[in-house]
Amino acid sequence: MLLSKRGNLGPQPDYATSAPIGEAELAGLAGRLLEERKSLKPQPSHPFSLEMRFPPQEPVSEKPISREKRLLGLFKIWTVIAYMDLNVENASIDWSTDLRDWIGKVEEAETTLPDYYNVLRRFTAQLNDSHIGISLVSPLPPGSVSPIQLRPIESKPVVVRTLRDAAGDDPPIQVGDEILTINGKTVEELFAERRPLISASTPGAMLRNLVNSLMGGQGKDTLEVTFQNESGRHTVALKTMSPQWLPGSGRQPPPGTPPSYKILDGGFGYINLDTLI
User: Mean pLDDT across the stretch 10-29?
Assistant: First the structure.
């Protein structure tokens, strides 16, 4: 990724000429252009460029943050995207002019920290870019992980792997089960709540991220989950797991169940290749 002298992203020539450049001239020309680049400051094409010095990272807190810090977070996000996102032209809003519309929304998000983060998620969801995500950096409560892994299969959230708990017991849900409700809310209701918070490049990416969002434990020890399989509909109490098993924690997850596969009518089937690793 290159930043041109005008502040635009992408490869931009520093010098263009229709005349041939002799070999003896090349070194001197390159040196002169390098000196020019050092003396020039990139100038963005948008009207809201800000000079910022970011403060040192503060300890994580669940307390509401001040109006000034909330706005600083908004401006930081806006500036980084304005300079660095190559796909900003695919946004649902005009990124160069619509910042002012979100200032009031951020100012009003003062009740809880998650409220503020959700405003930022709605803001960045307008980018329609799967590389964009806003995460709430906070200590994870017990029961933050569901002991099942889901994937969208035929546009439905289907269990592709289960994790045993610390005692070695399998959850009461099997590979191949389709999730219907969690804590009394249908999958469709949960998707409708979460879709405005997710930035996705394609409908397939949106579905993948929505299904992934169902794997959280919601900070509860137990989730009431309704699923269906060939034997019908079932409702079970699904015990959640400690976040100590999350990727990157430095600890290994509990042993998984056998590889997931299913044979369909007509001699077709599928297998989750992740279980072969």
Answer: 72
Which residues on adjacent β-strands are paired with residue 225?
182, 236
| The pLDDT value given to residue 2 | 39
- Give me the phi and psi of 123, to 5 degrees please: -65, -55
C-beta separation of 90 from 103 below 8 A: no
Give the C-alpha distances (Å, rounded to integers) separating 133 from 7, 136, 162, 204: 24, 10, 26, 16
Residue that is written with structure tokens 């100590």 in the block: 244
Q: Cβ contacts of residue 171 below 8 Å, gap of 6+? A: 147, 148, 162, 163, 164, 165, 238, 239
Cβ contacts of residue 148 below 8 Å, gap of 6+? 159, 161, 162, 163, 171, 173, 215, 238
Q: Which residues, at least 6 apart from 70, have a Cβ–Cβ distance to it below 8 Å?
A: 106, 107, 109, 110, 116
Q: Out of 27-36, 147-156, 177-186, 267-276, pick the least confident.
A: 267-276
Residue labelled with tokens 């990157």: 248
CA 261 to CA 242: how far, in whole Å?
A: 27
Q: What's the whole-model pTM score?
A: 0.66
251 vs 212, residue with greater confidence? 212
Report the candidate in 221, 229, 226, 194 with the shortest Cα–Cα distance to residue 209.
194
d(CA 207, CA 188): 11
Who has greater pLDDT, 238 or 113? 238
- Distance of alpha carbon 3 from alpha carbon 82, whole angstroms: 12
160, exposed or middle or buried, with CB in 10 Å at 0-12, 13-18, 19+? buried
| CA gyration radius, the chain | 25
Q: Looking at residue 246, what is its pLDDT?
A: 47
Model confidence at 27, pLDDT cuts 50, 70, 90, reads: confident
Residue 74: closest CA among 117, 126, 27, 35:
117
